């Protein structure tokens, strides 16, 4: 039992506070020992599934993870323990693994099977909800099932009244459709409420079912948490979006995000303060030298030192790292996939190896042997990235390794000091397309606490733009900015520029990025399996009225961005790729 506890603790620690995967190998060893010493088939199956889930988050280990997950499913089936939340969870994780490996059809079947296995099991509420949210297409029967579930939950919570029915909704206007529900944005929800309501009849059913009729089928959902409940509404958003019912789709999207926002405490103040600190550190404003001639002299010396460090005076002399940074859902996974399609490149995904080194880098700046200490930090990063190479990689020593941890946008200055030869690529997209794509994406896990509110997403977009402006001022020409719309319009030209920036020779194979066999561990895993096609540029226009709160915050940035598109001849209805 102690092995299970140790493995679970390490697994959770890696999830909550990732540090580049330092705990993974120890967690794997503990899981393997727990499997060996499992006292019964159920314990063995459950721990085997946990090990599989752990390996899904490790670059190059997804197939290993899938094997353990399938072994878990087999063990449960052999023991005839299928009415079990761990069995349903393993089926869901099987879908995730298949998705990551590009086996989309099999993944959808696995998700559907997971939903069926979880239904009726109170402890499997999360697997049931997430399995529906992960499915790309829902039948009308599935939409009706989810409407019943969400209506039941709304009735139990007092957010929907018995007499409310689908006919009460005027789905021609986003504002009037809200009359049907009591939400936290209205007077009925009360202060601090999260009134979310429920659905109503699978796209136009004539009768709203009463609680007495729904309860026998859905009381197993009693006590469901806000996060799991949100997945049901995300699923209904996708279901109605596919049916072309934008009004109902947006209604459920709002409910899903409101539920997610209700469960977290978040303020952008920390990010605002960080931006201010970075400006002070890397711009060394004149105010820092006020007070005396000595202070002014110190400021001049500090500026000269900083300039030398940013120019590569210290640091690790290794061109291996390529950092892809920016906002989620901007096209970064597409850029990584193009790079990873080159014979000399390995795409490591969203690695967390650099951020934990920042405190050590700051300490190195103040050490006696500054240059050697800074170089050592850079070498540790490169070594960590190379250690993540899959054991069976056809190219165990690639010339470039791509780190797509987007949050490194805030670390570009530190990267320039520790890794002066590293390449940095910033991927950008129309601000409102980014807002919409983040809002519709049910992010799972840490790292995006701002993603559940339109104004907070807009603020994050603006902050990311400001921090990248800072690096352009501090490191002119160091960052390559790639416009998603331009990449979509002229893939070859932008790909050539991208490879040149990373010091790589041209290879035609990068144009066939969709054929590259590699696992993708982000929300864009399905899109990079396809050729560039049209559907996502200016998609925000479909929901222009609903996005107005974000547009009001971002209007100056939107104006600048659209002027750039217009000057490049890109503001119009050309082909595009699905959002990434």
TrEMBL record:
<feature type="compositionally biased region" description="Acidic residues">
    <location>
        <begin position="160"/>
        <end position="172"/>
    </location>
</feature>
<feature type="region of interest" description="Disordered">
    <location>
        <begin position="157"/>
        <end position="208"/>
    </location>
</feature>
<dbReference type="InterPro" id="IPR026634">
    <property type="entry name" value="TPST-like"/>
</dbReference>
<feature type="compositionally biased region" description="Gly residues">
    <location>
        <begin position="191"/>
        <end position="205"/>
    </location>
</feature>
<dbReference type="Pfam" id="PF13469">
    <property type="entry name" value="Sulfotransfer_3"/>
</dbReference>
<dbReference type="InterPro" id="IPR027417">
    <property type="entry name" value="P-loop_NTPase"/>
</dbReference>
<protein>
    <recommendedName>
        <fullName>protein-tyrosine sulfotransferase</fullName>
        <ecNumber>2.8.2.20</ecNumber>
    </recommendedName>
</protein>
<dbReference type="GO" id="GO:0005794">
    <property type="term" value="C:Golgi apparatus"/>
</dbReference>
<dbReference type="GO" id="GO:0008476">
    <property type="term" value="F:protein-tyrosine sulfotransferase activity"/>
</dbReference>
<dbReference type="InterPro" id="IPR011990">
    <property type="entry name" value="TPR-like_helical_dom_sf"/>
</dbReference>
<comment type="similarity">
    <text>Belongs to the protein sulfotransferase family.</text>
</comment>
<keyword id="KW-0808">Transferase</keyword>
């Amino acid at each position: 039992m102690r092995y299970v506890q140790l493995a679970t603790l390490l697994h959770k620690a890696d999830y909550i506070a990732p540090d580049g995967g330092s705990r993974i190998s120890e967690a794997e060893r503990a899981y393997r020992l727990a499997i060996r010493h499992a006292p019964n088939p159920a314990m063995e199956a459950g721990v085997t599934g946990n090990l599989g889930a752990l390996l899904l988050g490790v670059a190059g280990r997804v197939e290993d993870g899938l094997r353990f997950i399938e072994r878990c499913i087999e063990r449960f089936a052999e023991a005839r323990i299928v009415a079990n939340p761990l069995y349903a969870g393993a089926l869901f994780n099987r879908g995730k693994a298949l998705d990551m490996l590009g086996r989309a059809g099999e993944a959808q079947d696995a998700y559907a099977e997971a939903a069926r296995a979880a239904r009726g099991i109170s402890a499997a509420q999360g697997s049931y909800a997430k399995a529906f949210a992960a499915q790309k297409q829902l039948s009308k029967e599935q939409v009706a099932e989810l409407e019943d579930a969400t209506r039941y939950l709304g009735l139990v919570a007092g957010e929907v009244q018995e007499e409310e029915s689908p006919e009460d909704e005027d789905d021609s206007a986003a504002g009037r459709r809200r009359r049907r529900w009591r939400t936290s944005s209205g007077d009925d929800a009360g202060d601090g409420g999260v009134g979310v309501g429920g659905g109503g009849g699978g796209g136009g059913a004539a009768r709203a079912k009463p609680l007495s009729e729904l309860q026998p089928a859905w009381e197993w959902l009693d006590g469901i948490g806000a996060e799991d409940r949100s997945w049901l509404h995300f699923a209904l958003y996708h279901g109605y979006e596919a049916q072309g019912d934008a009004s109902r789709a947006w209604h459920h999207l709002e409910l899903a995000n409101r539920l997610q926002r209700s469960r977290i405490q978040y303020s952008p103040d920390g990010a605002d303060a960080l931006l201010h600190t970075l400006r002070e550190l890397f711009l060394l404003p004149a105010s820092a030298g006020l007070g005396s001639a000595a202070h002014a002299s110190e400021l001049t010396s500090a500026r000269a030192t900083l300039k030398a460090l940013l120019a590569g005076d210290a640091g690790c002399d290794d061109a291996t790292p390529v950092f892809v940074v920016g906002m989620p859902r901007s096209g970064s996974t597409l850029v990584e996939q193009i790079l990873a399609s080159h014979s000399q490149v390995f795409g490591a995904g969203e690695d967390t190896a650099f951020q934990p080194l920042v405190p050590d880098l700051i300490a190195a700046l103040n050490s006696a042997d500054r240059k050697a200490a800074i170089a050592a930090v850079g070498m540790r990063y490169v070594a960590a990235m190379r250690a993540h190479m899959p054991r069976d990689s056809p190219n165990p020593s690639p010339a470039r390794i791509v780190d797509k941890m987007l949050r490194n946008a805030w670390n570009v200055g530190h990267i320039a000091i520790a890794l002066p030869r590293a390449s940095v690529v910033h991927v950008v997209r129309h601000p409102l397309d980014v807002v919409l794509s983040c809002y519709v994406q049910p992010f799972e896990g840490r790292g995006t606490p701002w993603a559940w509110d339109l104004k907070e997403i807009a603020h994050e977009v603006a902050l990311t733009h400001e921090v990248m402006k800072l690096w352009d001022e501090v490191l002119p020409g160091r960052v390559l900015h790639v416009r998603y719309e331009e990449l979509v319009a002229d893939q070859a030209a932008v790909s050539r520029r991208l490879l040149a920036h990373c010091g790589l020779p041209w290879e035609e194979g990068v144009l066939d990025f969709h054929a590259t066999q590699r696992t993708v561990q982000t929300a864009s895993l399905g899109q990079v399996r396809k050729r560039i096609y049209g559907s996502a540029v200016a998609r925000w226009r479909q929901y222009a009225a609903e996005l107005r709160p974000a547009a009001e915050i971002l209007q100056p940035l939107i104006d600048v961005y659209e002027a750039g598109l217009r000057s490049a001849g890109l503001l119009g209805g050309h082909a595009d790729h699905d959002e990434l």
